[in-house]
Write a structure and sequence with these properties.
mainly beta, five-stranded antiparallel β-sheet, Immunoglobulin-like
Length: 217
Amino acid sequence: MQSVVGALILSVSAAAAADEIVISDDGRQIQLNGDGTWVQLSRDRFATNGAGQRIRMKADGTWTVLSSSNATADESRTGYTPIEVASELTLHLAKVEILRRKIKRAKAIHAQTRTIYYIEILNDSSRSIDIAQPLKPMLAARSSTGGEFEIVAVDVERLTIAPKERVQIRVEAEGAPQWFGVKYMQLDVAAGALGNAQRRVLSKSMDEVEKRVVEQL
């Protein structure tokens, strides 16, 4: 396992974006999180055939040609593959916002907060993907310090994502963590929620979380 982790470190730069998907030297699909953690997305393996096409070799013994087939020789040699080539479905936590509303009561000022997660989904497969309904119970909002925040609303652009289509989902959670000691915010996505076969954990560093003061929540 240490050799796999070493291959991943060599395959991306220190400035790699959060939630980047790469292919390890042994052909495994890995998600690199912005908080320095990583997770194996599936037991499938990936390779490049003689025609330069990307091949997904599934754990059940079958294989398919991925719809994106523009991997270069250099990508195949280093083990690094862009998200669009590595995965038929890309889930990306594009933005996290913490909204704060000031409430004046008597002589004291209180604050009401909400955390907003924006997920981008790219369907890079040749088939349509259906969003699970109800979706809210299949999502969980957390912070790196263990705080959990109740999801109160989910706004979905459309319930079916056509091939090559990109959509955004807005997830609203009640409350927000104190800034001190929190390294990142994360959103757990249960298997099957957004067309993903495996559970996914999307994260965003607190350095990238936006804060806004609003009149209404």
